[in-house]
Amino acid sequence: MPAATSVATSAVLTARALLLDMDGTLVNSDAVVERIWRRWASEHGLDGDAVMAVVHGRQGHASMAVLLPDRPREQNLADNARMLAAETADMDGVVEVPGAAAFLASLRGVPHALVTSADVPLSSARMAAAGLPLPGVRVTAESVGASKPDPEGFLKGAAELGVDPADCVVFEDSGAGIAAGRAAGMRVVGIGPRAAVHGPDVVVPDLTRVKVEPLDDGTVRITAG
Questions:
Q1: From 21, 30, 119, 173, the catalytic residue
Q2: What three-state secondary structure class fits 20?
Q3: What pLDDT is attached to residue 2?
Q4: Strand order in the sheet with 11-15
């Protein structure tokens, strides 16, 4: 795993489409994620820090499969449904990642999609709580058969936008999400402190450090850093 110091902190990338994770990238939901997952860890006799090291970026049932590998999938799915309902009901502390609103506003007319491990109710609630508009193209938990780090979600986002994966840039904060973007053959801009150790092409502290400029040839210039 690359050290944080080996990752570029500034770069200029050219792309035809942007694929955006939600939690940790556009929306800071760490407070509720910590509350709910640490409670789940306690209920199952697991170390809270070890659980938090796994859950970011993945669908809940996929995290459970990693943490409780001998538990039946049906039980993980049932537990995941309960967790999603709890997360959707808890918006305390959910805010935008700095710069997210201005960043999304700069994408008007630029092909882009939300690619999130949250389901439709949770993604809709968190984006609204953070005061952010939902992109017109969304790939949510219901849309895929495999959770990040599988690339399915990002590949579906590219397909819905009609853009080759190699012409897409992913914005992600988690190890699972960065691995998914890499597996999809895409370049990755890492957002925030979790991202740096997972080898994105470039890492920035938040979206105030990203500028998107449409170019005359239909591409966009992304300046990060």
A1: 21
A2: strand
A3: 40
A4: 11-15, 220-224, 210-214
Helix (H, G, I), strand (E, B) or coil at 213: strand
pLDDT tens digits along 131-146: 999 999 999 999 999 9
Residue 41: what are its φ and ψ, rounded to 5°? -60, -45
Look at residue 202 and tell me whether its pLDDT is greater than 80: yes
CA–CA–CA angle 106, 111, 113 (5° rounding): 95
Q: How far apart are CA 110 and CA 169, in angstroms?
A: 12
pLDDT digits (tens, 9 = 90+) for 144-197: 999 999 999 999 999 999 999 999 999 999 999 999 999 999 999 999 999 999
Tell me whether residue 167 is one of the annotated catalytic residues: no
User: Out of 23, 30, 79, 173, which one is annotated catalytic?
Assistant: 23
Q: Record the tokens describing residue 185, joined without a space.
A: 């053959």
Cα separation, 112 vs 103, whole angstroms? 12
Q: Active-site residue 21, yes or no? A: yes
Residue the block writes with tokens 């039946």: 72
